[in-house]
């Protein structure tokens, strides 16, 4: 009997995700609609806020300020509800894909020859059904929607920033490569440590399963202390990887916070000078900062 997992392993990740997403395409369409609605609202919010601030400086339009506040609140309401809707739909879609994937993996392994199980530990196979599918769930339910949302916000935000103030946009674009370079370097370290930590956790579970399955033999030969020592070594190794992972993530968060707020401070300082010179209104300044964030 041919091992079905051999050919599954050669499949591209995105083709696997697409195959399991296809039966639930209607749910995906609803999630994408909510995503685009939330993204458009997020772009409209700082834009409308900026025009509302400018109304305060035009005496003839002060009577429209109350109406603009109502519209502003409506936009906030749309952004909040559509974001919650997007989160729920995409999370359910990720859970549904993960459930289908677990059933497919289990059914596939049940059709494998006995030799397949003799070469692998049962605990390792069980942990793969749990751990590996969580990665797909996270990809579909969270990371994919965040990627699409950020792409929409990036394209729409840059277009609106060009319309608002090209000089401030050029200043912002000079800072972005530095930020991306630091995040790319630290992100690769975080990803590498995350994979190592997950593999170490899998070895801990495999060792525990192996010990439980051979517990009778361990007690007959009096190897309890040796097994506990081996298990403890694997746990400590996994802990060391996770500690390194937390360290790199802490460094990335620190770098992101420092660089982001430094960039915002530079943009606000330059924009404030333009407002004083009269080349930019206060509303345009607020609009630019809101869209940049």
Hey, roughly how much beta strand do the residues contain? under 5%
What is the C-alpha radius of gyration, as a whole number of Å? 27 Å
H/E element sequence: HHHHHHHHHH
Described by strand count, sense and barrel closure, the largest sheet is: none
Shape: elongated
- Taking the alpha carbons of the first and last residues, their distance comes to 57 Å
Counted by DSSP, the helix tally is: 10
Contiguous uncertain segments of 5+ residues? 1-10
Structural class: mainly alpha
Let me know the average pLDDT: 85
Secondary structure tally: strands: 0
Helix content: over 70%
Please tell me about this protein's structure.
By secondary structure, the chain is an all-alpha fold. The chain is 88% helix and 0% strand. Helix 3 runs parallel beside helix 6 (122-164), helix 7 (166-213) packs antiparallel against helix 9 (224-277) and helix 9 (224-277) runs antiparallel to helix 10 (282-292).
């Amino acid at each position: 009997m041919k091992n079905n997992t051999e050919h599954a392993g050669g499949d591209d990740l995105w083709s696997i995700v697409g195959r399991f997403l296809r039966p639930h395409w209607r749910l995906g369409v609803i999630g994408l609609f909510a995503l685009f609605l939330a993204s458009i609202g997020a772009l409209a919010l700082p834009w409308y806020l900026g025009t509302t601030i400018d109304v305060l400086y035009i005496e003839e339009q002060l009577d429209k300020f109350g109406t603009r506040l109502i519209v502003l609140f409506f936009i906030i309401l749309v952004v909040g509800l559509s974001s919650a809707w997007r989160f729920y739909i995409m999370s359910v879609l990720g859970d549904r894909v993960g459930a289908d994937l677990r059933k497919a993996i289990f059914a596939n392994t049940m059709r494998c020859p006995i030799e397949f199980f003799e070469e692998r530990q049962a605990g390792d196979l069980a942990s793969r059904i749990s751990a590996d599918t969580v990665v797909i769930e996270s990809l579909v339910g969270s990371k994919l929607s965040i990627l699409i949302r950020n792409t929409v916000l990036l394209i729409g935000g840059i277009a609106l920033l060009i319309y608002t103030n090209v000089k401030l946009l050029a200043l912002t674009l000079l800072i972005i490569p530095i930020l991306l370079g630091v995040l790319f370097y630290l992100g690769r370290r975080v990803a590498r440590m995350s994979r190592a930590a997950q593999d170490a956790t899998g070895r801990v579970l495999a060792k525990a399963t192996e010990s439980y399955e051979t517990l009778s033999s361990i007690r007959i030969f009096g190897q309890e202390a040796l097994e506990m020592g081996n298990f403890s070594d694997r746990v400590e190794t996994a802990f060391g990887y996770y500690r390194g992972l937390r360290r790199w993530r802490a460094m990335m968060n620190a770098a992101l916070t420092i660089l982001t707020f430094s960039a915002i401070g530079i943009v606000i300082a330059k924009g404030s000078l333009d407002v004083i010179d009269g080349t930019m209104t206060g509303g345009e300044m607020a609009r630019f900062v809101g869209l940049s964030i």
